[in-house]
Write a structure and sequence with these properties.
By secondary structure, the chain is mainly alpha-helical. 65% of the residues lie in helices and 5% in strands. A two-stranded antiparallel ribbon has the order 1-2. Strands 3-4 form a two-stranded antiparallel sheet.
């Protein structure tokens, strides 16, 4: 695959960056749509823009920090420079945890109901990841193990993965899984959800499980190890367990009192007034 789209002077536009940017925009769009479906006020919907910025900023910071931690032995032995570590890769699950932290801080600062915004945002997170993995595919990073099977990809111009070798298309597998996760979360939210917080818990469970399985197919070695598990698998055990606890806790919560959501959800009286005006 070709990661470089075009260059303007010294600046080169990469497919990875384009897909990452599209993923962020798509996440914002889907979160806004879901917020309107939940009948949030315009003011509450407008807060989603700030939420996305906070999640992206803290998410990318934590993703980079975790990446540096995973390749720290290579920094110590001199096989990788700090400059390459800073400009190099990312750890997606670190970005996920950072995004959650960013969302919590933003909602805390703006006195917003975290449960509602979690459920509004997480399908968008999965959509951003799905598009981002397509960027990984074009860049050649996050590649799979060598394979002799009929399902493979072969890079010829990758700066990150081996070229001219048959590899398991882990990037496309993860992207397809994330797209399915988007559909599952949206369907659950419309048909099966009973309490706020369930979708957040469901996302953590399903994403962690899928990532844990795909990690066995990965061929890139600079991902860090904790015993026999990769760093992402090790952390994924905790995020999956946390998702189970979050889902069960959400199910046992009492419904959020209407008074607590005053100013965030349009009341039936307001809607009736609007209907009469029309």
């Amino acid at each position: 695959m070709y990661n470089d789209l075009f260059s303007i002077g010294p600046v080169t536009v990469h497919m990875y960056g384009v897909m990452t940017g599209l993923g962020i925009l798509a996440a914002y769009w889907l979160a806004s749509v879901r917020a309107k479906e939940k009948n949030l006020t315009e003011t509450a919907v407008d807060k989603i823009f700030g939420l996305v910025i906070a999640c992206v900023a803290v998410g990318y910071l934590c993703s980079k920090i975790l990446y540096i931690i995973t390749i720290f032995p290579h920094l110590l032995d001199g096989t990788m420079s700090l400059r390459n570590a800073i400009t190099g890769g990312w750890v997606v699950i670190g970005g996920l945890l950072g995004g959650i932290l960013g969302a919590w801080l933003y909602c805390k600062w703006n006195k917003l109901d975290l449960w509602i915004y979690f459920d509004v945002a997480f399908p968008g997170v999965a959509l951003a990841q799905a598009l981002g993995r397509i960027g990984c595919f074009f860049a050649g990073c996050c590649y799979g193990k060598e394979t002799t099977g009929p399902l493979y990809i072969m890079f010829t111009h990758s700066d990150f993965g081996p070229n001219n070798v048959h590899l398991i298309p882990t990037q496309l597998i993860m992207s397809a899984g994330d797209f399915l996760l988007v559909l599952a979360l949206v369907f659950y939210g419309k048909k099966l959800q009973k309490k706020e917080g369930e979708i957040a818990g469901l996302y953590l469970m399903l994403y962690s499980l899928g990532r844990f399985c795909v990690e066995f197919l990965r061929g890139d070695v600079l991902r860090g190890q904790v015993g026999v598990l990769s760093t992402s698998q090790f952390i994924g055990l905790f995020t999956a367990f946390g998702g189970v606890l979050l889902f069960l806790y959400a199910r046992k919560r009492t419904e959020t009192p209407r008074e607590k959501l005053a100013g965030m959800i349009k009341s039936a009286d307001v809607k009736d007034t609007e209907i009469r005006k029309n």
